[in-house]
Design brief:
Layout (H helix, E strand, L loop, with lengths): L8 E2 L5 E2 L4 E6 L15 E7 L8 H10 L7 E6 L5 H20 L12 H22 L3
Antiparallel strand pairs: 1-2, 3-4, 4-5
Length: about 140
């Protein structure tokens, strides 16, 4: 184990995930490594219980629960197998988790409905009339 296990995961100035809320398991990777892949469990699965986390803000929790990438129990599962070393995969999985939580903690901008300009409406209606006239001319038999 490296020094990562004793630190809390700082996401933003308001969100810090305690180390005790993160559960890691090591699995065999399908990534690079040659024959080594068959012997060493270098890939990391990081589990984070969104529903019961004390470190999340309500806004971030709601966004993560709505996000849909959770298990039925409300656990977010992040997998990393980019590297051949376990420590690098651990760090990568934590970085992925931080990025996911930061995205969820950022509120979406409020959409303001805009009025469609009169010129745009007029142009659209004239285009429709023009197409209608063309089609009508095709069907006429004199």
């Amino acid at each position: 184990m490296s020094g990562l296990s004793s630190k809390n995961l700082v996401v933003t100035h308001r969100i810090t995930i305690p180390e005790s809320e993160l559960e890691e398991s090591f699995i065999r990777s399908s990534g690079p490594g040659g024959q080594n892949v068959n012997k060493v469990s270098s890939a990391v699965q990081l589990r984070f219980d969104v529903r019961n986390s004390l470190g999340l803000t309500d806004v971030a929790r709601e966004a993560l629960l709505r996000g849909g990438k959770l298990t039925r129990d409300g656990v977010l599962l992040v997998t990393s197998q980019r590297f051949r070393e376990q420590d690098r995969n651990r760090a990568d999985a934590r970085e992925k988790l931080v990025a996911i939580i930061r995205r969820a903690a950022t509120p979406l901008p409020v959409r303001r409905a805009t009025k469609i300009p009169r010129a745009s409406k007029k142009k659209r209606l004239e285009g429709k009339k023009h197409r209608a006239r063309i089609k009508q001319d095709r069907s006429r038999t004199d």
